[in-house]
Automatic annotation (TrEMBL):
It holds the Pfam family SNF. Keywords: Membrane, Transmembrane, Transmembrane helix, Transport. The lineage of its organism: Archaea, Methanobacteriati, Methanobacteriota, Stenosarchaea group, Halobacteria. This is Neurotransmitter:Na+ symporter, NSS family. It comes from Halogranum gelatinilyticum. It is found in: Membrane. It is a multi-pass membrane protein. InterPro entries: Na/ntran_symport, SNS_sf, YocR/YhdH-like. GO terms for cellular component: membrane. The chain crosses the membrane at residues 12-31, 43-64, 84-104, 139-157, 169-189, 211-236, 248-270, 300-325, 337-356, 368-388, 417-440. The keyword Transmembrane helix applies.
Length: 443
């Protein structure tokens, strides 16, 4: 897609937004964070955040993007608020930061595609994950994944990926449903369902301050919020369409995929006797690999599964790189391929520590969840709600069948409870980072 093309159809936009949203955040992050932070309690807070904060925040991004048809930084200037470009810049930086380690995990997926073909992970899935998730091999595959992302964005062949996305979402669903059905048959799985689906309110209360920043951050990460991605994608919307309906579709679909992944990974972890609290970043890789080792035709199934995950990861990663490239294309005289390659190189370099040692990956991830994402979403909400305000409402209602009442509800909830919730989340995150010491890098 060149800089100022527009989506041919409304479905094209929704599909691209879903392609951005559905990715490693759903299949990798969501199950492992759920496992780590208390199961159903985490799920509950996540769902409240996705619906209650995610939808209003996504609408805010859509409004800014569609109104201006500009990249995530210049959009603020066009609206007449030059100083607020800082909010766009924070989003851009957040995207940069996240893509650096997202690509490392994309590299793991590439490794698992190879591992499925050779059956390398069959004999000891946990040891295999340990081997391939860090060090020179992880670094090389981080480079390969990033090169794929750069190649797609540089050549402007996102069209191809959009087509692949059409197939990707149903394929992800089919694969996950199949694996969930397999997990269901395993002895011990029922404990996994209990952990995932029946909240323990006592534990939620006891661990509230830890669960909230991660569950809310997970909603932002998974919905591609706070990184300029939705602003950028909405900037390619040409006509009037109901942004409400679009955002609800995207949020529901995205949460559905995450929950499905949870219905695979949590029962598998319990059935395989893996401690959910310590399963960590390897949760999905190890549990699913163990399942493939037991299944008939496991090599073929594993191969297909990881290829589908790769497409999901690519369609998300290109939306992140697209945000930065879109800005640079508008603001410099370099060509798109040069920009994509240059920025891709910088992002690759930023990801080197994460590829070398998963402790760094965790550190980058923590900072994104506890600081960058909530800060960035907060900036967007304050801008759309309080600064842009009434005109935002007009833009929101364009093409929508909903009346002023719904629009005003959005405006006032965004201005009040939603902002308060995000401020609360941010404060909790800052507390963990600065008081709890999580800000100290793993040197
Ligand atoms: N939402 C994507 C996922 O859940 O995998 C990750 C992502 C893509 C985050 C694009 C941010 C973004 F701009």
């Amino acid at each position: 897609m060149s800089e100022r093309e527009t989506w041919a159809t409304r479905a094209g936009f929704i599909l691209a937004a879903v392609g951005s949203a559905v990715g490693l955040g759903n299949i990798w992050q969501f199950p492992f964070k759920t496992a780590q932070f208390g199961g159903a309690s985490f799920l509950l807070v996540y769902l409240i955040a996705a619906l209650g904060i995610g939808i209003p925040a996504m609408l805010a991004e859509f409004v800014i993007g569609r109104k201006t048809n500009l990249n995530t930084i210049d959009a603020f200037e066009k609206l007449g608020y030059r100083n607020w470009r800082i909010v766009g810049a924070i989003g851009l930086a957040t995207g940069f930061w996240i893509l650096s380690y997202y690509s490392v995990v994309g590299g793991w997926v590439l490794r698992y595609i190879g591992g499925s073909i050779t059956g390398a992970y069959f004999s000891d899935p946990a040891a295999y994950f340990g081997q391939v998730s860090a060090g020179p091999e992880a670094l090389a595959l981080h480079a390969v994944f990033m090169a794929l992302v750069v190649g797609i964005v540089a050549l402007g062949i996102e069209d191809g990926i959009e087509k692949a996305t059409k197939l990707m979402v149903p394929s992800v669903v089919v694969m996950l449903v199949g694996l969930a059905a397999f997990a269901f048959t395993l002895p011990g799985a029922s404990e996994g369902y209990a952990y995932f689906l029946s909240p323990d309110f006592g534990a939620l209360a006891a661990n509230f301050t830890e669960i909230v920043p991660f569950a809310v951050g997970q909603a932002f990460f998974s919905l591609s919020l706070g990184m300029g991605a939705m602003i950028t994608y909405a900037s390619y919307i040409d006509g009037d369409e109901s942004l409400f309906a679009d955002s609800v579709t995207i949020v529901v679909l995205n949460s559905f995929v995450g929950i499905l992944a949870g219905l695979v990974v949590l029962p598998l972890l319990f059935a395989q006797g893996i401690d959910p609290n310590t399963s960590g970043a390897g949760a999905v890789f190890v549990s699913v690999a163990t399942a493939f080792a037991e299944l008939p035709a496991g090599q073929v199934l594993g191969f297909v599964f990881f290829v589908v995950v790769l497409i999901a990861a690519l369609s998300s990663a290109i939306s992140l790189l697209e945000v930065v490239v879109s800005w640079a294309v508008d603001n410099t005289s370099y060509s798109r391929p040069v920009i994509a390659t240059g920025l891709g190189g910088v992002i690759f370099a930023l990801g080197i520590p994460s590829a070398w040692d998963t402790a760094w990956l965790t550190w980058f991830d923590n900072l994104a969840y506890q600081l960058l994402l909530p800060l960035s979403v907060l900036g967007i909400l304050v801008f759309a709600g309080w600064v842009f305000g009434r005109p935002a409402l007009g833009e929101l209602l364009k093409g929508s069948d909903f009346g002023d009442g719904v629009g005003l509800t959005w405006l006032w909830t965004a201005r009040t409870v939603v902002i308060v919730a995000v401020v609360g989340t941010l404060l909790l995150g800052l507390q963990t980072l600065f008081v709890g010491g999580a800000i100290v890098p793993p040197l």
